[in-house]
């Protein structure tokens, strides 16, 4: 049975990380009877092992709920698209919002407005969504509903006179939220008589069914057996299965405009499906694609290499399948003298990089080495050509460079007033410039800083969390490239540069960083049968050195008494052997050494 568009509501839940978004989704599933008590479990929509372990949402999930309104007695089809809360997954959020007409803004009544709350609200406003504010966790003894309501009005600018008070854990206010969705979220504009068009907002690979495509139908109707065309790749397929998640896959015969569901066409070539693309009918299809969402540019780059060279092809297949599910990831082939063949991958941030590495290792059973992350630099050569440098090993000779520019980001920090001094010191140490500081309440302040991105990429987030005991929140956006005095530093092991350990640094920090890095490498690299020199070099100049002592075997142990020349002869023979060993020996650099760069304090 097809639902009339006026009884359909498409909405997503936006919130800062850890404000109870997944718990609210569970409460909505339970209240509408979509899950029985036997089927339900905490964080039901976070079905990835990694999500449950870390307590964060990584992937957007969709579920179709049936709810009978208490006001008009009509049965409504409510499509919920659950979204992540962390700054590194904002692309995932923007994709979900493109498929909705409304959003529930969940704010923790104890913690108040956080950085990511604002970022996600602005994303929703850009998409012209109707926003329904909800105060969650009102049952907590530390909750301050009135204070937080005022805070939302002041900092976000929403009218909160009819704000819903809820506690997802205690199932308080769930009916009020559902009634508010029906009342305030507009029904989708859906013309079901014209050529069908649908927006792809997610996809993943299933070993038995091929690519599963999640779509929001915008125009017309898609039926089982139809020939459809993917407009960006110009490939056409037959629809083998259609369905909705309720929350388990529920097959349907047709998917009409305004609805959210999945298509399965037995697609084996994953390159045929692009997130953000438009699906239309193969015969007399639409000529104009739907406005997708902007293609995002990665901000952090790192090399990913298989530990065993024979797994290279396996890694490529794994990355292809992961990109289908996470289209903000990019990759290209990279060759390293130290690590062999691998891929240079682009990520949205450090957490994104960590999650991708963990997903590759867990879901595809790979053993990987990841190099330290870097950002993109803009280099202008003497002849005027401009080069975007993602990998330090590709940096041209100093004599060819007219100027080097590094990316700057605007960082917005929300913090309790107790930690202002420590945070300002952290930002100043990272070469930051303060833009503004506003007190939202007596106990909460917003600080804006302009920071070089390569300073932020190393350990800024970890330090921020430890300084503020986890109370501060962070949001950042790219500003522009600015000229800086940058140098490339190489790490040499036995005189050989390890390209995967090269870094681009600000000149003022290079020597100090080189010294600390050499000390760290000395601890991490296992001792060999011969002496190993670990050096940091800027160009031809060595700025730091550590020597890793040789493992020594007592060759004179069998000499009992006799002439000293016998012992000397044995020691000379050992010395020659070690020299020969050093010429042909290679030093294996462990994975920890590549990550040591992240842990180095200036």
Give short descriptive properties of this protein.
alpha+beta, eight-stranded antiparallel beta sheet, six-stranded mixed beta sheet
Can you characterise this structure?
With 602 residues, the chain is of the alpha+beta class. The chain contains 13 helices and 31 strands. The strands form six sheets. An eight-stranded antiparallel beta sheet has the order 11-10-16-7-8-15-12-13, with helices on one face. The model is unreliable at 43-48 (pLDDT under 50).
Shape annotation: globular
Strand content: 25-35%
Report the helical percentage: 25-40%
Q: Radius of gyration in whole Å, from Cα?
A: 29 Å
The main β sheet shows up as: 8 strands, antiparallel
Task: Tell me how many strands there are.
Answer: 31
Average pLDDT, rounded to a whole number, is: 78
> Largest sheet, order of strands side by side?
11-10-16-7-8-15-12-13
User: Helices and strands: which structural class?
Assistant: alpha+beta
